[in-house]
Amino acid sequence: MEFGLGAIDGAADAELNDLKATVSRMAKGYTAFGPVLSDASADALRRITGPTGKRPAYIAERVTGTWQLGQGWADHVTAAVVIGAREGASLRGGDLATLSPIAPSNASELDALIDAAVAQVAANHGVSVALPSGGAGGSGGVVDSAALGEYAEQVTGKAGVLAETARTILQQLGLEPHRTVNLDDKDADAAIFDVVAQELGSDWPRLVATAFDANKAVLLDDRWASAREDIARVAVGVLDAKDVDVTGAGEAVARQAKHWGLDELAAQALDTSALPYAKDVAVVTGASPNSIAAAVTGELLGGGATVVATTSNLNHERLTFYKELYRTHARGQAALWVVPANLSSFADLDSVIEWVGSEQTATVNGAKKVLKPALVPTLLFPFAAPRVSGSLADAGPRAETEMRLLLWSVERLIAGTVRYRREHGGWTPPARGDSRLPEPRPLSAATVPTANPRQPWMHWSTAGMRNPCGARTPPWCTPSSDGCAAPV
Fold first, then answer.
1. pTM of the predicted model, to two decimals?
2. Secondary structure (3-state) at 308
3. Nearest in space to 339 (alpha carbons), one of 369, 364, 360
């Protein structure tokens, strides 16, 4: 995971030196640090730099600024600080720490630690480095960087003269800034992160980082084009006609089918019969390859729906999957919007809801062009879920993150969608016993919360439920006389 590599054959039985050579050859584009070491080093650096009032990035700033060395040196020195300032004893004897001080309490001690790490890296690579001279001529003296840093801290630091003066003035004006409860100003940042790391996990900032970007949204609505390709493949024998559905693809596709003597496909292309979901706008989360949500998306596209699918990782492979899903299922005027979003981030959830319901425009040659019309969701399928395992004893930060995605983000998505429909869709909550409203149901054996934005309350449904109104297709859309699907 750190190097972005897949499985390596024989890695478990390989000698360490051979494995090192293999990884070095395969990970040519690797740069420090990857996702694993980034989290580990960030935790260690916050412990080291927090008490000094400095940010972890200060180490790189001192290496590239004060020492005037390159970014490569900054990466090596950062690693040296993390490894060389570890606390505790080694299982092989002696202390883990190879640098000092391992727990700097002020800026000058932190500078001394960084300087020691620079010297260690230089010695390991057989080179000699020294702090640049502060004077321009032979009579100039050398600036004591530690003294300079300490002086700057006394003047401009959190507890410096300027900060204290500003706080005094604000207090006199009755505008005293908010203070962190039970935390000193100097240690507030580090202490807050320690609390967050203990309660939610050290990787929590990464897990809830926003991924939504409206500029990266992709629209797939070119079935008329891919249908012509399918017609050509059938004509040359690559595809079987019974495996192709070009319903509602249009006259151009029909003419091409007639040219090749494919009359049945030509009739399909000219078929303008109403499709079951042609008027629906569905929001689907968790539609990854081989997932239930992907199958639901395919069925909706086959019914002519407009589908908005969110994905946590919109890369080339994932986009290729969605293109194939659209090509093999879309009928009529079906459209598929694919938008990147981290559904563990409440900010992303709110952004997706707002984006779905708002019109996106651009000015082209002085004229307004609509890139995306405002959409009012009628169906919601929240399938996004993390890998979950463990027992009651594993309750902690990981379980908190899992619950955030499995439950709270679903509730927020449902509530936000319902609120938007109420404000923009001309919709009012129905009576509880209204039986005309379809209720989406999950297609897996797991019990998950599901809801239709037409109903503002949440329903809990499970697979294997009978349809109280008799057989009906598709199985997840069934009227309920009491607002809940009846169990078998």
1. 0.57
2. strand
3. 360
pLDDT score of 457:
33
Rounded Cα distance between 330 and 336, Å, is 9
Classified as helix, coil or strand, 337 is: strand
Dist CA 403 CA 406 (whole Å):
5
Considering only CA atoms, which of 204, 184, 121 is closest in space to residue 397? 204
Judged on CB neighbours under 10 Å (0-12, 13-18, 19+), 101 is middle
Which one, of 90, 96, 57, lies nearest residue 75 by Cα?
57
DSSP tag of 475: T
Distances (CA, A) of 97 to 45, 46, 82, 85, 87: 14, 17, 9, 5, 6
User: Per residue in 195-230, pLDDT tens?
Assistant: 777 788 777 888 888 999 998 999 999 888 889 988
